[in-house]
Specification:
- The chain is mainly α and 186 residues long.
- Helices cover 48% and strands 8% of the residues.
- A two-stranded antiparallel ribbon has the order 1-2.
- Helix 3 packs across helix 4, helix 5 crosses helix 6 and helix 5 runs parallel beside helix 7.
- The longest helix has 23 residues.
């Protein structure tokens, strides 16, 4: 097998996060999905995988055995007539990972996305990160504030001021305002 496939690889979370697997076995699984995408099964040799990953045959075999042991792939071998010599090996994706068709999760899979899961949306993550940064910045400014009352409304006002579309406030401006207020009340 001399070609590198131009297909995408799929590594389901079950495979990616399985701590029982050797470190690069999930990557091998992804390569198998890319090669199997063309015809439904992968027939690449161990030598192909050895060259691809720059590892020994025993390493490839260990990765394959782990993927098979934990139910992620199925290996079928055909032997040459009247011999124990392997003629062809076919690697298919296990129905435990792709229960419906071998090409995606089943509609009612027990390994599907839980109903109560929240999406890992990067914009949500950015908002959470921005909010926690705003809160930590506010805490620094709150230490300067002379009257320690109304912290919650002050935080809300701080967030509004910092997130205005036109002319947002800066920490420096707010800090200067607090310092001026402290001098005013002395």
């Amino acid at each position: 097998m001399n070609e590198k496939p131009g297909y995408y690889a799929i590594i389901p979370s079950d495979v990616r996060y399985d701590t029982r697997l050797p470190s690069k076995a999930p990557l091998l699984y992804g390569e198998i999905t890319a090669l199997a995408n063309k015809s439904g099964s992968c027939w690449a040799s161990d030598d192909y995988f050895c060259r691809l990953y720059g590892v020994s045959r025993s390493t490839v075999q260990a990765w394959m055995q782990a993927l098979e042991r934990y139910g992620y792939i199925v290996r079928n071998v055909t032997f040459k007539p009247d011999s124990k010599e392997i003629d062809k090996r076919y690697i298919t994706l296990s129905s435990a990972v792709y229960p419906k068709t071998g090409q995606g999760y089943a509609e009612k899979s027990d390994k599907g996305i839980p109903k109560n899961r929240t999406d890992n949306n990067t914009s949500i993550n950015k908002n959470i990160r921005a909010s926690s940064t705003l809160e930590s910045d506010f805490e620094k400014l709150w230490k300067l504030y002379p009257k320690k009352i109304g912290k919650k409304p002050a935080l809300a006002a701080y967030k509004r001021a910092m997130s205005r579309k036109k002319n947002p406030a800066t920490n420096r401006q707010i800090q200067d305002g607090i310092v001026a207020y402290r001098q005013l009340i002395k």
